[in-house]
Structures are given as C-alpha cells and as structure tokens.
Known about the structure:
This protein is an alpha+beta fold. The chain folds into 2 domains: 2-174, 2-Layer Sandwich (BirA Bifunctional Protein, domain 2), CATH 3.30.930; 182-224, SH3 type barrels (Roll). 22% of the residues lie in helices and 34% in strands. It has 4 helices and 13 strands. A 6-stranded antiparallel beta sheet has the order 1-4-8-7-6-5. Strands 12-11-10-9-13 form a 5-stranded antiparallel beta sheet, with no helix packed on it. Strands 2-3 form a two-stranded antiparallel ribbon. The chain starts with a helix and ends with a strand. Residues 1-160 form the BPL/LPL catalytic domain. Residues 1-29 are annotated as: Disordered.
Amino acid sequence: MARAREGDPGKLWITADRQTGGRGRRGRSWVSEPGNLYASLLLIDPAPLPALASLPLAVAVAVHEAVRRAMKPGGEALEIKWPNDLLIGRKKTSGILLEGEKLADGRYALVIGIGVNIAFKPEGTPYPATCLADHGIHISPAELFAYLFESMASMLAIWDQGAGIAAVVSRWREHACGIGERITVNLPDRSLAGVFAGIGADGVLMLDTGAGGTIPVAAGDVFFG
C-alpha cells in the first residue's frame, strides 16, 4: 500500500521469500517461513466499488488454476472454501486477503495478498492446514508464481471490472467445497448455522437456516460440520 501512496500506477506484483509481519483476516498476524509463496498484487481503481465484492471469487479461481497446474492428474480434490480459501483434503493450503484504501489523490488502491503453503504449513490455526509437499507436489515458489501471474491476468480479464461476474461465479461453483452440507459461519458478533445452499449471482453465500428460506451472507468464516 505504501507504493500506492507514493503514486504507483498499479498492476504491481511484489513477492517475498519470508514474511515477519503477515496479516490475515480480522487482523490475525503470523510469521511465514521460506519455501512457501507469498505474493501481493497492487491494483489502482480496479472497478467501481460495488463491483469489488465479487473480486475475491475471481482471485480464488485464479489461485486455484495456478495450484491445479502444479498438481498431478488424479490427485486429491483441490476445492475452494467460500469465499477464497483453497483446500486439499478439506485442509487449507492457500489464503487470500484483499485490502483497499482511498488515496489522498482520489484514487482507490487495492492490494491482493496471496499465500500458498508449498513446503511448510502453520500449526495451531483455527482451520486445519496442509501444504503441497504433504501431497507429493513439489514446485518452487518462483515456478508457482509464474503460473499465478498467468492465471491472474486471465481471470481479471474475464472478471472485467465486475462485468464478467456471471462467468466468474460459474467457474467458482465448479470447484466449490461443501455445497449441500451443514456449515457454521462465524461473524464478528455471532455465528450462523445451516446448510450451504450455494452462492448467489453476486457471489454471496446463501445459507439455508431451516426457517423457511435462505439468507445471504456477504462475509464470514466458514466451518464444515
């Protein structure tokens, strides 16, 4: 974000071998060891603000495509947990965080942070974690980033500032984890339980609470079972 404040025009990728001040959802912090992929993409004015709600889905599909290219055919399923975590064997192998800021010059800066567990996985996390190496997938961070660079450019073009959301949602659904299963969605102030009925045309999670209908959930942490 500092580069954006300094006037960077965007479409800037930054990668790191190691992170000592990583930050996740709700301000969670972590130290990231070498051997995994840590990448951030800076976008400037990527779309009108209402359209940005669907961008996490496009990013998830792009990361899914990159990781899938590294996997052997016939391996364990690579799935997306709403909205943008990648799972192998129901364990988290990738996380994505989007953060935006209105700049002093009137532009809107958005940073897409992506982490993929390649050689190492964190311990003691709220959701069980895994890494590619645990599944016999051996690839360097540089090689995986090359795949990600290509897939992200492709998916951002399909997303097209939100105009291509229907295509993005369709691709996301192909790899969705847990549709039709019971889930709990943890919100900042409460938890909701029900059946994961899918995602709406705008990408929000649809939760069947058994009370005669479904309710939309725009943000939250999903747990199965």
